[in-house]
């Protein structure tokens, strides 16, 4: 593996990756997981020098791999001049402390690595706030490991009580900072809510999927924009929203942060305000790297994350991307497994017309056609129909107006509240 190291990589942090396989995880799966961990390491700016898989029924509670294996890893790291070891699972504070003591090197787990990537890629105030909150929530129970002395100036009135240790001071400082960040996120969330209200009445389509599935590339292909799209995990953290004209409808297309296996729970919690674009979408385009051998698992991970976000009732279209990299056998198997999916290549523009047709069909399925007789006095309801529906005919009879129109089901619910239904005749066509 050393022969693969390029001269340009000499300055990069040299990393050893460690994973387990056993009764619940096959060796092939574990190898795929370590490949993903290697991509994460590359995204974080490190270079993987060696990967180690161990067969265990369960992780060792003290050192994750056992004392004997830990000594073996120490020897490997010394021989290969490796200065960081990263584990594919989350470690307890005790495991981190023991591994660090046993190898005399820096130790990270999967969540810490992902949080580090998010921190380096956060550009907007919202993303930076969300990531810092997640990092502090991750750090809080691990203060026995991360001795940071967050405030060197911790003296002053009210801080000189007997017996307060530095770790207790750090814990209090973190707790206060978490409170500040949560308040800041609430304000940012209110601003987003106001922005979304300005977009009401339009069909909202949100791109979701496993990280690196090609969502941003698809966004660029459909809207002819330049959203950052690169072959690295988590290229996109903030939601990007663009208008897009279909044949019969205009939609708001949003690109969101990619999901990943074992995404830290604190990160999901922190990014829930950003992911409101997903929860409030009318249609979800679930983009999948169809050429990957892990495609089925990626779909499961995304579906599970959508459940956590309470976004499972939204109309969803499965989009199998990178069809140009799939052979005929793969395509046949995926068509059998997912008969309603659309096959595309966002990079090469294959299947995009069919995708747009499917989106329009889903939009039409979300509409109802109504004929209402409304008293002219209910002018707010009439104005709402003209603003939010496609009016086919309108005629006046005495003090009533008879309207035939097509309207989104979600808007029809709001219209029903306006009408209050009393004294209003309705005929569904």
Question: How would you describe this structure to a colleague?
Answer:
With 429 residues, the protein is of the alpha/beta class. It has four domains: 8-116, Rossmann fold; 122-155 and 164-196, no CATH class; 200-364, Rossmann fold (3-Layer(aba) Sandwich), CATH 3.40.50.300; 366-428, Alpha-Beta Plaits, CATH 3.30.70.240. Helices cover 41% and strands 21% of the residues. It has 14 helices and 14 strands. It has a six-stranded mixed sheet with strand order 6-7-5-8-9-10, sandwiched between helices. Strands 2-1-3-4 form a four-stranded parallel sheet, with helices on both faces. The chain has a four-stranded antiparallel sheet with strand order 12-13-11-14. The chain starts with 12 loop residues before the first strand and ends with a strand. 34% of the residues are buried. The model is unreliable at 1-9, 145-164 and 422-429 (pLDDT under 50).
